[in-house]
Amino acid sequence: MDHFHEKPNTFVGEVNINVTDLARSIDFYTNVIGLKILNESKQQAVLTANGKTALVTLEQPDGVMPKQGRTAGLYHFAILLPERKDLAAFLRHLLQTGQRFGAADHYVSEAIYIDDPDGNGIEIYRDRPSSEWTWNDGLVDMATVQLDGDSILSESEEEFTGLPAGTVMGHIHLHVSNIPEAENFYIKGLGFQVVSHYPQAIFTSTGGYHHHIALNTWQGVGAPRRPENSVGLNWYTLVFPSEEAREEAVARLKGIGAAVNDYVTEDPSGNQIQLIV
């Protein structure tokens, strides 16, 4: 695996989402996705791949509402597998369970898309080696073409036993209300670089990754923020390589007029971010 999810890069660590039925969601995330429970309480379950690090936390708040349409918020969070053989085992498992899913080859990666029972979007993917990516003028070549599932399945005969310990949160893709505003926040404020343009979307990263954070207006320009108690993204973490790098980001955010309290900020569309080291 390449080293895009460790120092000196800044990357997504964990996502925290609302669900309407915690027991149903735990069943889905453990049996279908293959995460394990790290901690569990009456209204929350913290899920992990390696038994130590939180990757996804599920919350069932009082008075939770179903997913609301046409709002800013989560498009999908993306779980990155260490190797192609891991994707083969996961794909075979999905085919055996009869779970509905989508799939795509993005040149830089091979991806499977699946919705949780509440409609929260999930991508499970593996990266092609970065030496195989094509760059032109600082932009990486990405597309959406048909995935060669047979080729992936032929990679390995291994049975799926859950997500491997080396699994990380690869990226997050968000609906925003306005691309220029989002770009100002993520680029000038947080210090990410734009590495790809797509109709009504930008892909941003640190350290030359194909994307750590993608932003789109596919729910409509001016899409309102997600109602607080509804299904969707509560917050995600950005992991900085050092205290110094985090302080620099805080200063830049304050410089563009973004509020930061106790290392928590939110983008102009209301997506909340916890800045951690």
List keywords for this structure.
single chain; 277 residues; alpha+beta; 2,3-Dihydroxybiphenyl 1,2-Dioxygenase, domain 1; eight-stranded mixed beta sheet; 5 helices; globular; VOC_core; Glyas_Fos-R_dOase_dom; Glyas_Bleomycin-R_OHBP_Dase; Glyoxalase
Write the layout of secondary structure elements.
Blueprint: E1 11-18, H1 22-33, E2 36-41, E3 44-48, E4 54-59, E5 73-80, H2 84-97, E6 102-105, E7 109-115, E8 121-127, E9 135-136, E10 139-140, H3 149-153, E11 168-175, H4 179-189, E12 193-198, E13 201-205, E14 213-216, E15 232-239, H5 243-255, E16 260-261, E17 264-266, E18 272-276
Parallel strand pairs: 1-4, 5-8, 11-14, 15-18
Antiparallel strand pairs: 1-15, 2-3, 3-4, 5-11, 6-7, 7-8, 9-10, 12-13, 13-14, 16-17, 17-18
Q: How would you describe this structure to a colleague?
A:
This protein has five helices and 18 strands. It has 277 residues and is of the alpha+beta class. It has a single domain (11-276), classed as 2,3-Dihydroxybiphenyl 1,2-Dioxygenase, domain 1. The protein has an eight-stranded mixed beta sheet with strand order 2-3-4-1-15-18-17-16. An eight-stranded mixed beta sheet has the order 6-7-8-5-11-14-13-12. A two-stranded antiparallel sheet has the order 9-10. Pfam families: Glyoxalase. Residues 11-127, 168-277 form the VOC domain.
